[in-house]
């Protein structure tokens, strides 16, 4: 998006030059961070503060990227809350969620909902492909986001369309 909303020849020209030179940054949606973002066991992340929260070298941050209309996300919500509860007193772990219909992060691609990713202390990002049970996800977090059980192999597998347990956005629905 242009830096200035005023449609002057100067602004349009500057925008065109920046575009041609590959200097434009994408416009990313973001809600404002709620004052109580960290009050509940499951922390609430927003686009503009995302890296401030997940790039914490003292903890692994396990994030659910969800859409409010997604049925699989609604099914996962009570389990995710229990996962947050299980790790609420663990200073080395943060369980978090982000509404991906209202928040975008340039370097995090969400193809389907829910998408689960762990941002490890060392900066490594691990896609979670394991089982959607409390025990499977607790074991994953307990292992430092390395061990995945039930229905998930390594991180290398490409996401398949229509993969069980995930929903593609419906036509007309926006995604990140």
Task: Give the secondary structure arrangement, pairings included.
Blueprint: H1 9-20, E1 42-44, H2 50-54, E2 60-66, H3 71-86, E3 93-99, E4 115-119, E5 125-127, H4 134-142
Parallel strand pairs: 1-3, 2-3
Antiparallel strand pairs: 2-4, 4-5
Tell me what the structure shows.
It is built from 4 helices and 5 strands; from the N terminus they run H-E-H-E-H-E-E-E-H. By secondary structure, the protein is an alpha/beta fold. The protein has a 5-stranded mixed sheet with strand order 1-3-2-4-5. The chain is elongated. It starts with 8 loop residues before the first helix and ends in a 34-residue tail after the last helix. The C terminus is likely disordered.
Which range best describes the helical content: under 10%, 10-25%, 25-40%, 40-55%, 55-70% or over 70%?
10-25%
Strand segment tally: 5
**Helix and strand composition category:** alpha/beta
Largest β-sheet summary: 5 strands, mixed
Mean pLDDT metric: 85
Count of alpha/pi helices = 4
Net shape: elongated
The stretches of 5 or more residues where confidence is low (pLDDT under 50) are 152-165, 170-176
Kindly report how far apart the N and C termini lie: 16 Å
Helix-strand topology string: HEHEHEEEH
| Beta content | 5-15%
Order of strands, widest sheet: 1-3-2-4-5
Radius of gyration: 18 Å
């Amino acid at each position: 998006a242009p830096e200035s909303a005023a449609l002057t020849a100067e602004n349009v020209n500057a925008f065109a030059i920046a575009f041609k030179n590959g200097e434009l940054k994408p416009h990313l949606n973001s809600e404002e961070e709620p004052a109580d973002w960290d009050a509940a066991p499951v922390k609430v992340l927003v686009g503009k503060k995302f890296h401030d929260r997940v790039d914490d070298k003292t903890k692994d941050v396990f994030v659910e990227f969800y859409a409010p209309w997604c049925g699989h996300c609604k099914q996962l919500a009570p389990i995710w809350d229990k996962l947050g509860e299980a790790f609420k007193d663990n200073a080395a772990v943060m369980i978090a969620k982000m509404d991906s219909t209202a928040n975008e992060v340039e370097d995090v691609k969400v193809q389907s909902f829910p998408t689960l990713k762990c941002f490890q202390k060392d900066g490594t990002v691990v896609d979670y492909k394991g089982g959607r049970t409390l025990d499977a996800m607790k074991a994953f977090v307990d292992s430092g986001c390395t061990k995945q059980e039930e229905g998930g192999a390594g991180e290398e597998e490409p996401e398949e369309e229509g993969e069980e347990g995930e929903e593609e956005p419906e036509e007309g629905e926006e995604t990140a």
